[in-house]
Amino acid sequence: MISVLNSVSQLNAEDALSSTQASLQNSLTQLSTGLKINSGADDPAGISIAAGLGANIAALTQSSQNASDSVGLLQTADGALSQVTNLLDQAVTLATEAANGQLTAAQSTAADTQYQSIMAEITQIGTATNFNGTAVFSATPITTFTSDGTAGGTTTVSTTTGALSSTTLALNTTDLTSVAKASAALTALTAAVNTVAATRGAIGASVNQLTADTSVENTEVTNLTSAQNNVQDADIGTTVARMTQYNVLEQTGMAALSQSNQAEQTILKLLQ
User: Fold this and answer.
1) In whole angstroms, what is the distance from residue 46 CA to residue 48 CA?
2) Is 168 within the bounds of a domain?
3) Least enclosed by CB within 10 Å: which of 40, 62, 76, 83?
4) Residue 39 falls inside a structural domain
């Protein structure tokens, strides 16, 4: 039947062409952004998943940086304490020599002068050592916060380096001016060496834990990034093939619409 008022074939052709052009535009958008989800309308569930994964990745990436910063600080502290250990060994040598009782008064004075210089250097190390402007040796714990972005995925690692000086090591009242005092200094130095060693051990344990945390966090970032890519990244090969298909459909749709318009001209010919 030939209709004058409405052309169903033309309406169908227009609808099909409009749908094809919308699909073609969507494919072009995916190719230009590299994403198959460019708005909530594309995949409401998918965009929610991708956003959640993105938040996890951001938290883990920063957590890895937090741990790395703390490792740097703790390694700085350990390096300083290694130097302090060397100084204490020098002080032990001087105290052992002075406790022998065979030094002249001048030699005892010289040994004590060198000993006091070592004490001052230890205090200087404790005061001056810093990491990124933060004092390394303090009674305040060094706290490292890590998170995977979830309420139950947080971890806090605390390490206390403690203040460092000849006073905190109980060496500020020691001297080598007599055999008795040198012997007392030797006892105090042995305790100080043990204290520094214990602190280095605690620091080393924290460094190992933070290093392991960083490794786990980096692995999680890799895995979550892969998962996020699977959710939101466009399959370029498939998208190109789809775009080619829609290009062909657009051309055939336009041809069909043109044919539909020509069919209407038949009515005019009947009236001529």
Assistant:
1) 5
2) yes
3) 40
4) no
